[in-house]
Amino acid sequence: QVQLVDSGGGLVQAGGSLRLSCAASGLTFGRYRMGWFRQAPGKEREFVAHISQSGDFTYYADSVKGRFTISRDNAKNTVYLQMSSLKPEDTAVYYCARNLLENRNYYQQTAYDYWGQGTQVTVSS
């Protein structure tokens, strides 16, 4: 079935950059809107970014606007999250997810049906 494998996390100092990747299989990737969420210890999973099927439209949480960029390469079945100007509060496990075709509420966790295993991003001061 559908599998999403996210990677690229690691330890980075505040102000640094990191690029996350999510490789998808078992689906016609270009048909689906994709998103990134994150979850810090003891916190709810929160919306980070969303991208339309073609990549023409993107949406971001206020907390990451201007710092993060979501993109996709449909030929590679991959969605990316370029993270810049990282802050300690960005520390979390980051998950990519597939948006339900019938649900355009990109900011809601319940609007996604398949999730990657998560990749840890740790930002030190």
Summary?
With 125 residues, the protein is mostly beta strands. It is built from no helices and eleven strands.
Structural key phrases:
mainly beta; 11 strands; 7-stranded mixed beta sheet; 0% helix; 4-stranded antiparallel beta sheet; 125 residues
The residue ranges in which pLDDT falls below 50 over 5 or more consecutive positions are none
Main β-sheet, in a few words? 7 strands, mixed
Task: Provide the succession of SSEs.
Answer: EEEEEEEEEEE
Radius of gyration: 13 Å
| Strand segment count | 11
Mean pLDDT: 97
Q: Structural class of the helix and strand makeup?
A: mainly beta
| Fraction of residues in H or I helices | under 10%
The shape is globular
Beta content: over 45%
Task: Explain how this protein is built.
This protein is mostly beta strands and 125 residues long. The chain contains no helices and eleven strands. Strands 2, 4, 5, 6, 9, 10 and 11 form a seven-stranded mixed beta sheet that branches. A four-stranded antiparallel beta sheet has the order 1-3-8-7, with no helix packed on it. Strand 5 and strand 6 (58-60) form a beta hairpin. It is globular, with a radius of gyration of 13 Å.
